[in-house]
TrEMBL record:
It comes from Takifugu flavidus (sansaifugu). InterPro entries: P-loop_NTPase. This is Interferon-induced protein 44-like. Residues 1-50 are annotated as: Disordered. CDD domains: Ras_like_GTPase. Coiled coil: none annotated. One of its GO terms (biological process) is immune response. Residues 28-43 have a biased composition (Basic and acidic residues).
Length: 359
C-alpha cells in the first residue's frame, strides 16, 4: 500500500497498487480472547454487533468507557408548557415556504447540505418529505428502503424545487451511504471528508476497497469550486434508537465533527421519528415541543454529537401518508430554515471576492 501522506491513511493523487479494505467510519475492535482460549474473532465488528453494551472501547484510545444507560421518561398524563415556541399557523407555513423558495446564497447557485447519519436514520425520507411539502402531495423523490443495510449506495444530489416546472431553489440536499453500515461497507472518514471538500462527483459509489483518490476515482475534482463544496452538514439521528446508541458512536461522531469544523463547515442535527417515541406527538405533531420524551431524546442526541441542543431540531418525515399535513409541513419547513441559517454562516465566513457576482 502507498505510504500515507495525510491524516486519514490514504495518499492523495497516488495510485494504490494493492487496495486494502478501509475500515468503515463506525466500527470498533472486538476484545481478544485470552491465550489458550477460543479462536480470536474478526478484528472488525459493526456498530450493530455492539449495541446495548454497557462498557465499550473508545474509538479514540484504548480506554474503556462506561456508558450510562439511557431510557425515555414516562409520558406525562398532561402535556407541559412548550420548551420551544413554534407558530403552527397557515401564515407561518406560507412565510417559511416563501423564505425557502426565494433563498439564494451569494456567489453560488445553491447551498449544498450533506446529510450524514447511521443506516435507517431517515436521511432519504427527509429529502422526499421536504420535496413533498412543495409538491403538495407525498412523493418519494429519494428512494427509501426498509432494510438493515443502507439502501443508498452512492452520492446523490437533490435540487429542491418549490414549483413544478420551474428552476430549482437555492438548496441542494446531498444523500449518501449510511454510516456504520455493517463491518467494512460504511464510508470511511477519508471518503466523508472528500465529499465535504467537494472532491467526489455525483453518482460515485462508495467501496471499502477503493478509497476516493485522484488516480482511481472517476470524475475526481482536484480543485473543487465553491459551488462543488459542501456548505453545511446535517447529522440525522433516529429518536427510536437513541437508547441503543452508545459511547463508541459518540466518539466517532465527535471525531468526524472535529474534522468537519476544521474545514469551516457548520453543523446541525435532525432528530427523526419523534412521533414514534411520543404518543402525544403521534396524535398531534404540534405537541412535539411540549413532550418531555422528545426533549430527553434531543438532550441525548446533543450529548452523543457533542453539540448544543440549540443546533438540533425534531422532524416527522412522511412515510405511510398519501397526503401532506399542515402541521407536519411546518415542522419540516422549520428544519430546512434552520439548516439554511447555518449554511449562510459558511458564506458569511467565506466572503466572496469583490468581483464575484451573485447569480
Amino acid at each position: 500500500m502507498a505510504k500515507s501522506n495525510g491524516p486519514f491513511g490514504f495518499s492523495f493523487g497516488t495510485a494504490v497498487p494493492a487496495p486494502v479494505p478501509a475500515p468503515a467510519l463506525f466500527t470498533m475492535d472486538r476484545k481478544e480472547e485470552p491465550e489458550g482460549g477460543t479462536k480470536k474473532k474478526d478484528p472488525v465488528v459493526s456498530l450493530n454487533d455492539k449495541l446495548g453494551s454497557k462498557e465499550v472501547p473508545s474509538a479514540l484510545n484504548n480506554k474503556k468507557e462506561t456508558i450510562k444507560a439511557f431510557s425515555f421518561p414516562r409520558p406525562s398524563p398532561g402535556l407541559e408548557s412548550p420548551w420551544r415556541v413554534l407558530k403552527w399557523t397557515e401564515e407561518q407555513r406560507t412565510t417559511l415556504m416563501k423564505n425557502i423558495s426565494s433563498y439564494k446564497p451569494s456567489c453560488t447557485e445553491a447551498a449544498r447540505v450533506l446529510l450524514l447519519g447511521p443506516v435507517g436514520s431517515g436521511k432519504s425520507s427527509f429529502i422526499s418529505s421536504v420535496q413533498s411539502v412543495f409538491n403538495g402531495r407525498v412523493t418519494n423523490r429519494a428512494m427509501v428502503g426498509s432494510f438493515s443495510t443502507s439502501f443508498t449506495k452512492k452520492l446523490q444530489f437533490y435540487k429542491i424545487r418549490s414549483l413544478r416546472g420551474q428552476q430549482p431553489d437555492g438548496l441542494v440536499l446531498c444523500d449518501t451511504m449510511g454510516l456504520g453500515d455493517g463491518g467494512m461497507t460504511g464510508p470511511t472518514l477519508h471518503d466523508v471528508l472528500s465529499v465535504v471538500q467537494g472532491h467526489v462527483p455525483e453518482g460515485h459509489v462508495f467501496s471499502p476497497v477503493q478509497p476516493v483518490n485522484l488516480s482511481q476515482t472517476l470524475g475526481y475534482r482536484k480543485r473543487p469550486s465553491l459551488e462543488e463544496k459542501i456548505h453545511c452538514v446535517a447529522f440525522v439521528l433516529d429518536a427510536v434508537k437513541m437508547s441503543s446508541y452508545h459511547g463508541s458512536l459518540s466518539s466517532s461522531f465527535q471525531q468526524l465533527r472535529e474534522h468537519i469544523s476544521e474545514l469551516g463547515i457548520h453543523q446541525v442535527a435532525l432528530l427523526t421519528h419523534v412521533d414514534l417515541v411520543c404518543p402525544e406527538t403521534a396524535q398531534d405533531v404540534t405537541n412535539v415541543y411540549k413532550s418531555r420524551v422528545v426533549q430527553a431524546a434531543i438532550d441525548r442526541a446533543a450529548a452523543l454529537l457533542g453539540m448544543s441542543t440549540s443546533y438540533i431540531v425534531p422532524v416527522k418525515n412522511y412515510s405511510s401518508e398519501l397526503d401532506v399535513d399542515h402541521n407536519t409541513d411546518v415542522l419540516l419547513l422549520n428544519a430546512v430554515d434552520h439548516i439554511l441559517q447555518y449554511a449562510d454562516l459558511y458564506f458569511l465566513d467565506n466572503s466572496p471576492p469583490p468581483d464575484c457576482e451573485t447569480p
